[in-house]
Design goal:
Layout lengths: L3 E12 L2 E12 L3 E5 L6 H9 L6 E6 L2 E2 L2 H7 L1 H7 E4 L12 H10 L5 H15 L14 H13 L5 E5 L7 H16 L3 E6 L2 H5 L4 E5 L5 E6 H5 L2 H6 L4 E7 L2 E7 L5 E3 L1
Parallel strand pairs: 3-8, 3-9, 6-7, 7-8
Antiparallel strand pairs: 1-2, 1-4, 4-5, 9-10, 11-12, 12-13
């Protein structure tokens, strides 16, 4: 039986008077790739921040390996394990890149783990090789292309070898070639046993990657939790939560209705 990595129970969050999440509950199992689907503003990023411990829920609870992600447990007893074990990849790399060179960026995490100098160098070289960024080691991260920044951002997170990866809109700003490269990398990491919580409105990304998905509505509540294939085939649901859209136009006496998106249909009336 698979182990529960995270248990999210009745989580709500407010920014002042503005509701960002409303009564969200689900589990994330070890080795699972779970997608969080929803339109922009539905609360996907807020949910990942709550799961990562960056912000505390206004109500409800989050458990990591059966222990509450709050209070003294996170602050004292297990903070090092949790921070090393759970990697957060933000949608925009510039939020995370702050070191003077790519090498320093990738080395920053291992240096916080009490590794020897030799161990740090070995970890950095292995990670840069995995991400194919060896030639960028002396470059300034902020001066790289969008695709290069994403690779460095991922390398900086993967260099501490986290058990869980929280990915917020990972294809944001990437060209098609880099998107394909990213999916291939994620599939390799999934085969290696990593656990994923992936927030996106890119339905084509989750089709081949995620076995299960939850869906957040624009009112910030969870409206579906099930097999990804079943959710992607539910056009009514996708239209309802604004993940695909529909419009109609007329050719003489024939009205064509089109729902647009990678999982859409075309009807004539």
């Amino acid at each position: 039986m698979s182990e529960e990595m995270f248990g999210i129970k009745g989580v709500s969050f407010r920014y002042g008077s503005q509701v960002a999440l409303k009564d969200v509950s689900f589990s994330l199992m070890r080795g699972e790739a779970l997608a969080v689907l929803g339109a922009s503003g539905a609360g996907k990023t807020t949910l990942l921040k709550v799961v990562s411990g960056l912000i505390a829920p206004s109500s409800g609870s989050v458990e990591f390996l059966g222990r509450p992600l709050a209070g003294h447990w996170l602050k004292r007893q297990q903070q090092g394990r949790f921070r090393a074990g759970v990697g957060f990849v933000f949608s925009e790399p510039d939020v995370q890149l702050f070191c003077p060179t790519v090498y320093d960026e990738v080395a920053f995490g291992p240096l916080q783990m009490d590794m020897s100098g030799g161990q740090v160098r070995e970890r950095v070289e292995e990670t840069m090789s995995l991400l194919q960024i060896e030639g960028l080691r002396k470059r300034v991260p902020q001066r790289l292309s969008s695709g290069e920044k994403k690779k460095v951002q991922l390398a900086a997170v993967l260099s501490v070898n986290p058990e869980v990866l929280l990915l917020d809109e990972p294809t944001f700003g990437l060209d098609p070639r880099t998107q394909v490269w990213l999916l291939e990398l994620l599939l390799r990491l999934k085969e290696a046993g990593k656990t994923f919580l992936l927030a996106t409105h890119d339905l084509s990304l989750v089709e081949d990657f995620s076995g299960r998905a939850i869906v957040l509505s624009e009112s910030h509540g969870m409206v579906a939790n099930g097999a990804t294939a079943e959710i992607l085939s539910n056009e009514k649901l996708l239209l309802q939560v604004n993940l695909i859209h529909e419009h109609a136009h007329r050719h003489g006496t024939v009205v064509h209705k089109h729902s647009h998106g990678p999982y859409s249909s075309h009807d004539e009336h």
